[in-house]
User: Which sequence fits this backbone?
């Protein structure tokens, strides 16, 4: 699918200048397993809030379905975009270790305030409702700020426990991303079963308080493993990576009128090296920076530019991805959720099937499919990251088509006024396919943005991965607002009417399926021409 760039050292590898390599006493699976447990505790906390957020907004806070969905998407988008700032601070100034500690502290404070806000008596007066909403949204966005530093750094910190220059550890690193996803999904599955039940049947304050304790445990466990990690808090004699890359663009712009011959004469050796690499055949305008910049710096700039088409074409997938915690949940709430007399399945619990399918499929993928594919492809990960991402995007389109068909059937049953509503179990296949899709695309995007950026920018690389989901959530929120306004005119019911039996979520799902197909076609075109930055990139 893509050409491989064979010179790993010029862009840097896991053994970067500010990692402390003590291979016999630190790092490896010993440290990586602890990082997985640390993030499992954090994921329990985050999804203990996020999974049922729309039900809290439409319930105790009294928002409409469309407003609540827009608020959830806006917050989720902010959670996904703030890592760009957190990654920048980590890679440029603080380092990943310090950033994780500081952001975890903010995270814990936000969760504590969130739980406190639910204890404020509501509906007693306008002032008390306003106070509750103010504290609630302030704490919610404080959690987002904590996530902004935590999320890009913890995954990179875990992957950095493996040396990419060692063949065995490079394979272990690829496996690490699979098992990190596995652990996260077990944790998310647990919190969706436990927290959502507590929130809807016992107490919202208790349901939001338990995630606070879980995040406190996450920070404690992370600090417990300090002596076993491969890391250093100091940068060793390297310029700010953002300054290096910015300088390449500035020099290329300054020299844009210089003839090629003058550039070659100015630095003949660097120019010959540039021409020797397949990756340098792309973005040749940056070669004009060779007058005053080093080859490695120019290649770093090109590596960053190559990410942009993949980032853009992956956004449609994340728009589709944004529907499972919002409209899928509201869709399930209108269906027959009884499993025994007096016992209802919380609608948000259905999201557990996404995680359950990942938990079931990842061991099969990592232990059976990868070795089988490796025997044919000779790729240490079985298939390339772009092939993995593309498989997941295709499956997400299939899930959305299935969701549209099920919603059409549900609406027909509701409008026929059947005495027994359609069973909620009809939604399970779309959740399962979404889970398998996430296993391919989410892990693939993590590996891709970790491996294809310069080593000193890996926190930012992971943040770029997360920002795709932010863009998807913001665009989803924008689409919902526009479609709601358009379809609510002239006395017509909105596609997102509060009474979903009179709404048309099926039309929205079909629209997303069409957009997904168009985005997938563009993705295939860019992926086919992509040039990998390293030979050992997953």
Assistant:
């Amino acid at each position: 699918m893509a050409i491989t760039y064979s010179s790993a050292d010029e862009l840097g590898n896991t053994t970067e200048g500010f990692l402390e390599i003590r291979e016999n006493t630190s790092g490896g699976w010993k440290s990586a397993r602890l990082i997985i447990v640390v993030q499992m505790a954090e994921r329990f906390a985050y999804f203990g809030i996020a999974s049922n957020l729309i039900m809290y907004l439409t319930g105790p806070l009294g928002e409409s379905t469309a407003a609540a969905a827009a608020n959830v998407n806006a917050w989720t988008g902010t959670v996904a975009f703030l890592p760009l700032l957190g990654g920048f601070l980590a890679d440029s100034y603080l380092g990943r270790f310090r950033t994780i500690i500081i952001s975890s502290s903010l995270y814990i404070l936000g969760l504590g305030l969130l739980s406190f806000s639910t204890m404020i008596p509501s509906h007693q007066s306008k002032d008390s409702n306003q106070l509750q909403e103010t504290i609630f949204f302030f704490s919610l966005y404080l959690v987002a700020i904590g996530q902004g530093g935590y999320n890009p750094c913890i995954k990179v910190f875990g992957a950095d426990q493996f040396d990419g220059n060692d063949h065995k550890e490079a394979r272990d690193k690829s496996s690490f991303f699979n098992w990190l996803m596995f652990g996260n999904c077990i944790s998310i599955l647990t919190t969706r079963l436990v927290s959502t039940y507590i929130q809807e049947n016992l107490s919202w304050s208790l349901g939001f308080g338990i995630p606070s304790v879980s995040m406190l445990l996450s920070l404690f466990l992370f600090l417990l493993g300090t002596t076993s990690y491969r890391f250093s808090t100091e940068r060793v004699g390297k310029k700010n990576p953002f300054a290096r890359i910015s300088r390449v663009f500035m020099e290329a712009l300054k020299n844009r009128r210089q003839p090629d011959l003058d550039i070659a004469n100015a630095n003949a050796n660097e120019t010959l090296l540039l021409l020797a690499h397949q990756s340098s055949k792309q973005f040749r305008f940056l070669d004009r920076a060779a007058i005053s910049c080093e080859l490695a710096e120019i290649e770093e700039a090109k590596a960053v530019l190559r990410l942009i088409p993949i980032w853009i074409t992956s956004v449609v997938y994340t728009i589709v991805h944004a529907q499972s915690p919002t409209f899928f949940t509201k869709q399930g709430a209108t269906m027959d959720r009884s499993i025994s007399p007096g016992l209802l399945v919380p609608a948000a619990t259905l999201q557990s099937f996404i995680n359950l399918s990942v938990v079931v499929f990842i061991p099969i993928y990592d232990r059976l499919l990868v070795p089988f594919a490796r025997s044919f492809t000779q790729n240490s990960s079985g298939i390339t990251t772009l092939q993995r991402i593309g498989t997941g995007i295709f499956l997400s389109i299939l899930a959305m088509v299935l969701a549209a068909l099920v919603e059409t059937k549900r609406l027909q049953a509701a409008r026929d006024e059947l005495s027994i509503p359609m069973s909620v179990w009809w939604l399970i296949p779309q959740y399962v396919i979404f889970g398998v899709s996430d296993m391919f695309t989410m892990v693939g995007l993590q590996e891709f943005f970790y491996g294809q950026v310069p080593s000193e920018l890996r926190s930012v690389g992971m943040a770029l991965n997360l920002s795709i989901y932010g863009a998807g959530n913001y665009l989803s929120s924008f689409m919902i607002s526009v479609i709601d306004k358009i379809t609510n005119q002239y006395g017509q019911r909105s596609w997102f009417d509060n009474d979903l039996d009179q709404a048309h979520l099926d039309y929205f799902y079909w629209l997303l399926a069409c957009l997904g197909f168009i985005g997938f076609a563009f993705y295939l075109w860019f992926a086919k021409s992509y040039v990998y930055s390293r030979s050992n990139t997953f």
Summary: DSSP finds 17 helices and four strands in the chain. The radius of gyration is 24 Å. Confidence is low (pLDDT under 50) at residues 1-24, 261-266, 271-279. The beta strands are 3-4, 338-340, 343-344, 531-532.
